[in-house]
């Protein structure tokens, strides 16, 4: 197949929806994207710095990240100016003055503690309303392993900052909902504990916490989106498209949750309490509440952060005031309780060496107080809930993530980072009756519940050398190690459902960034993945061929993965980028091994264990004017041996189909900063996926809603009416879709729906009160997953009706 790097005009659905998006664009555009680094209350406090020699722009970025003080400037103002290297202790005010010495520039300290850089001959006018921000184009993206500036990235990268996280949490604490609200290429949230059917650009994203993998590819229970409370997160770095920089799993992209970091102050504390209720009914069963607390600070060479959160969620109601069906099997966040304990400790050994230890303990567990009542898809009747006690223990996620990190900013002129981590993951699923569980002695009634356990231990080593060839070349190299032990049991009968699988992986990598001239950035890299899977001889459960013995084995696979990209900036406000990258993933090995029904099978002979190699090609444009920014891109994502889930007749279990897949899409983000008080945002995503169903090597059918999200449009308006009163409104529209439209197959037709959410906040003399409303217009709709991939009488779920959240937060 030939791949064209332009948007095909033959895609009539895309043309129709781009016209609609264009019409909405004339009415709604977005703000300059900015990141809130942190509050900077004291610019005279001694701190340690390690500023590498190079451009002044790079030096100011390093200063902002290391000091926690935000710096705003125009790239034109600092263009062509060099800065020397600085290592040691200094106050931020002294260091920034030194960096600007003899440059003709000045740093203006704003009332909020941030700096604005301008020419001395024409200082900029500033007001107390200015945000503490560094322009997003100038931010360093740590998830690339080499601290790449956003403007130099040949891939689409989105950074969700702390302000956006807090804004979203005033309406919903659901991680999937937050991501869906801010990323048009992410599927609409299922509003459940499971993330099954929630994809990113039509493929699986790799979830990370501070670079630590949270996904469980060996037995993918699709719960990896719920391993941390968002109140513990400082920002989220999202790399769009396949990537191998963090190893296997990122066939759709990387979603890295960067946790809260210690304050430079002696002590800072924050707390938040809020209550949630449907607007149509207020009561103990339908109401929910949450509270979170954060403490951080530093003293001499020590740094510390502590976070606590607790949440109880009530029963969800649809727009008609009816209890939404509870998913007693895959798990639910309604009628649940969750908590998170997070701590991070740091210590400066000397001016260049830093060690850090972190721990995050998270659990979410259902209340087991409701049972679902089947709906009727043909009659349009939803699945609902009534009071009752389901069989077995309530579904839960229980996750412990620990890490130890060492950084040396001057190891023979290089920056060295070593990280060791461990993650313990337990996921219990609810009991159900399934033919897969049948055993004439242990389970004659076919009822059981599965439990997945995974322990991951790994290490990451990264070495960065910058400033080579007259500051034109940066070299990043490293080695990743991983050992993953995963198994799946049947909890009620004590049987082993999927055998213990030991996955060993090592992967050295090399990444280069070369700037031959100021307007061109070249990126290239290679990563060698070496994977071995160890499985002892095991016996399947009785339902699989009466219990067959499968010969164990140690299959191993290796792949050399490449990436390359270019960014060309012919004008200061415009850049063109192109990228090629490869991602490496594994199919659901546990699902394959537990499903063997034939005799004399062996692990090494199972073709389905071959890895998924995904190639991603992308081209795009970035425009960044004074108050308007725009990014558009077109991408293609292909895999010759993809992994597609297909449901059985009653949709209680799924099998894996290994087949060729081709996905293409386009996305756009447009912004407009109307003034200091009003900012608008618009994002659009188009996607189409096809797969080969007859094995002839040619794609012939649409990928279903289990794999492909709808085409989506999201928009938002942020306003500051007074220094104390602010508001935020967001809207999303999921366009209708008819899978296999060419064949006239209407079985999986998706009916479009749109939602509007809003929040308002008012600053008091002490603290802030806020109120948020989701589904403001009380839209009655069936969720995307219910209409497409997971739709059945038992899972014909509606979405939540209008819901109100009221809260109070305080920084002290």
Automatic annotation (TrEMBL):
<keyword id="KW-0998">Cell outer membrane</keyword>
<dbReference type="InterPro" id="IPR036942">
    <property type="entry name" value="Beta-barrel_TonB_sf"/>
</dbReference>
<dbReference type="InterPro" id="IPR039426">
    <property type="entry name" value="TonB-dep_rcpt-like"/>
</dbReference>
<dbReference type="InterPro" id="IPR037066">
    <property type="entry name" value="Plug_dom_sf"/>
</dbReference>
<dbReference type="InterPro" id="IPR000531">
    <property type="entry name" value="Beta-barrel_TonB"/>
</dbReference>
<dbReference type="Pfam" id="PF00593">
    <property type="entry name" value="TonB_dep_Rec_b-barrel"/>
</dbReference>
<dbReference type="GO" id="GO:0009279">
    <property type="term" value="C:cell outer membrane"/>
</dbReference>
<dbReference type="Pfam" id="PF07715">
    <property type="entry name" value="Plug"/>
</dbReference>
<dbReference type="InterPro" id="IPR011662">
    <property type="entry name" value="Secretin/TonB_short_N"/>
</dbReference>
<protein>
    <submittedName>
        <fullName>Outer membrane receptor protein, mostly Fe transport</fullName>
    </submittedName>
</protein>
<keyword id="KW-1134">Transmembrane beta strand</keyword>
<dbReference type="GO" id="GO:0044718">
    <property type="term" value="P:siderophore transmembrane transport"/>
</dbReference>
<keyword id="KW-0408">Iron</keyword>
<dbReference type="GO" id="GO:0015344">
    <property type="term" value="F:siderophore uptake transmembrane transporter activity"/>
</dbReference>
<keyword id="KW-0406">Ion transport</keyword>
<keyword id="KW-0813">Transport</keyword>
<keyword id="KW-0675">Receptor</keyword>
<keyword id="KW-0812">Transmembrane</keyword>
<comment type="similarity">
    <text>Belongs to the TonB-dependent receptor family.</text>
</comment>
<dbReference type="InterPro" id="IPR012910">
    <property type="entry name" value="Plug_dom"/>
</dbReference>
<keyword id="KW-0798">TonB box</keyword>
<feature type="domain" description="Secretin/TonB short N-terminal">
    <location>
        <begin position="69"/>
        <end position="120"/>
    </location>
</feature>
<keyword id="KW-0410">Iron transport</keyword>
<keyword id="KW-0472">Membrane</keyword>
